DNA sequence: TTTCAGGGTGGAAACGCTTTCTTGCAAAAT
DNA sequence: ATTTTGCAAGAAAGCGTTTCCACCCTGAAA
């Protein structure tokens, strides 16, 4: 029992070819006849074979695995990001090893050079404040590093312009009658987990409002942890401050969800007494009729993955920064039925 | 540039020994003379040598890595669990590869037999409903599997008795005057993410109350997502139902934190008008004076890790179940200053 | 018909280690 | 003095891959 995993030799034997040919099939080498390739692939799947990444690394210098370091907050966002990354990498038969940052301590472990995180072919880092923590702002590795949803002059990066998103929110919401409000994601207390995304979005909102002659009083900004319940508390808070209609920019779709829930509880009509704009563009927003600033999360992840692959393959240029812009998606939560001068 | 890393051969040559001896030094093999060992160590540090982990894994036939599959909810709990597991494994030169379940889709990928998760020496699975999803309730691997914070007759497991914890909460809180309330963690809608922990705790609470002749009306159970804000909403809800004092069993410390925050906002005194008992025993509860049912999370993780190591080393016995019990920690949140008959 | 090019393939060597086998040698036992 | 024991350490055989070289074809060019 406990039969060992099949090796390339067993595949070769079953397919009646040499091990060299099996290896060529594994690596998509062009000079393998289609008929041979198929026989080998059939043998592989019949044996349940998968190559040993460590042996690949020893022999060829590549393990066909990359590391993704990411925080464990805001899971829907990271889930989509992962999806985008995986899309690109799986086409190239790359695997992803995840390094979720559960705590500052755990992060420190990841940053030690002997960590498993550095034993792969490259690093994808999805954490804002992370680069700033490192000595010389560099990760302790010779292998390529690409930042995603973050920015640094040292490394390739792909990120969304959150400030711009805030401005777009301002432009959209300022057109409606009624007072303006914002819900901002609380910044983590810990330096290590620092995440300024919420700040950037609200700053853009405030500045965007200023540009059209409106101002956002500090009292109209509700700071909340990242949860739907936070959105509910925010609406309760706003209701104590003033009367409808409320024009609310929620710093994230999840916060907006709480506003929707609480509005329903309070009997406020969405699109009339409460105009609500989220941020993220998660799929469920469509069903809920929630207007939102849609981020191209998957594309951002895919682009980061592509840049990393290029680096792994030897590209040596200076760091590239790919900026993505959110898109305003208007739904019923900011489309009321009354008509006013336009 | 990029001079190649020194290998075991160069170390052996410099220290004037064979490569076998260098390897023995690396692996703390006892039969190396102290004098020889020191010569080898000196050679290593003078060359800046560090062993190639991939080569070790290929040659040794082991990956010196185990997989930990876990959900990404309730991060403090899992952080502590990880800590306990790592404690044991790092002593044995083992690394942990994490497989966080971000979504049902991602879980399905982990369960496919060709996943990276199965490229390691063993599996540690910290997810309640997971075993039930599998064909024949077995993971598609010949490697050893141990469940932690979960239970199944098929595999070794280490878990905390949540129902008992609920009963202990009942016994403690029923002694105080005033009405009784509970906050229960919402079950995930998704079958895959199913987590009955919240249910078990509240069920124990209800049954424990029944035993002493008290009952817990359904209206006194507030079901909330897992967030501090959920606790705040819960207290608001209870305040609408009845007057102080409130005796509240929060299904998790994080929910209790929200109750603390909201009580402060509402001017209710903890320990007097609000008696509050959490569940988990996280470290911050001490500073906040929160009574709680402390779970031996680290020990549970450590025990699971030990069982897995034994299996990896060839232990063949039938599945073992290790049950842990929570401990009641009484602090000021359930120690009021008034005196009544005891 | 012969020569040549080049695609397709098998197998040996290499990657950097661990592990087993073997030998050398000194101390203990006969 | 001879045999036995056991520890230390070198040599060599793997581990599961990639890569390179040599060889065999087949078909086009001469």
Automatic annotation (TrEMBL), chains A, B:
Pfam families (alphabetical): LacI, Peripla_BP_3
Domain of life of the native organism: Bacteria
Residues annotated as domain HTH lacI-type: 6-60
Molecular-function GO term, any one: transcription cis-regulatory region binding
InterPro entries: HTH_LacI, LacI/GalR-like_sensor, Lambda_DNA-bd_dom_sf, Peripla_BP_I
Entry keywords, A to Z: DNA-binding, Transcription, Transcription regulation
PANTHER family in UniProt: ALANINE RACEMASE, LACI-RELATED TRANSCRIPTIONAL REPRESSOR
The protein's name in its UniProt record: Transcriptional regulator
Organism name: Meiothermus hypogaeus NBRC 106114
């Amino acid at each position: 029992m406990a039969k060992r995993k099949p090796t390339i030799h067993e595949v070769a034997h079953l397919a009646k070819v040499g091990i060299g040919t099996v290896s060529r099939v594994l690596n998509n080498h062009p000079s393998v006849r289609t008929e041979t390739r198929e026989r080998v692939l059939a043998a592989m799947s019949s044996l349940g074979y998968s190559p040993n990444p460590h042996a690949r690394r020893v022999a060829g210098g590549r393990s066909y695995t990359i590391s993704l370091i990411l925080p464990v907050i805001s899971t829907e966002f990271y889930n989509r990001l992962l999806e985008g990354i995986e899309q690109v990498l799986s086409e190239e038969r790359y695997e992803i090893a995840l390094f979720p940052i559960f705590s500052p301590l755990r992060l420190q472990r990841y940053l030690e050079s002997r960590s498993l995180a550095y034993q792969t072919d490259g690093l994808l880092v999805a954490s804002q404040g992370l680069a700033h923590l490192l000595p010389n702002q560099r990760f302790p590795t010779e292998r390529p590093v690409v930042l995603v949803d973050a920015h640094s002059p040292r490394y390739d990066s792909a990120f969304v312009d959150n400030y711009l998103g805030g401005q777009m929110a301002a432009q959209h919401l300022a057109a409606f009658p009624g007072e303006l409000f914002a819900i901002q994601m609380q910044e983590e207390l810990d330096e290590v987990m620092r995440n300024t995304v919420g700040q950037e979005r609200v700053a853009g909102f405030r500045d965007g409002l200023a540009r059209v002659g409106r101002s956002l009083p500090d009292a109209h900004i509700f700071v909340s942890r990242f949860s739907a319940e936070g959105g509910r508390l925010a609406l309760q808070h706003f209701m104590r401050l003033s009367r409808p209609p409320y024009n609310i920019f929620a710093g994230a779709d999840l916060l907006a969800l709480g506003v929707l829930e609480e509005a329903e509880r309070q009997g406020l009509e969405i699109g009339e007494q409460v105009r609500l704009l989220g941020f993220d563009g998660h799929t469920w927003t469509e069903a809920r009729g929630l207007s939102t600033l849609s981020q191209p999360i998957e594309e951002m992840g895919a682009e980061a993955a592509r840049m990393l692959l290029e680096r792994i393959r030897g590209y040596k240029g200076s760091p590239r920064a790919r900026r993505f812009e959110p898109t305003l998606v208007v739904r019923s939560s900011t489309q009321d039925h009354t008509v006013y001068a336009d």
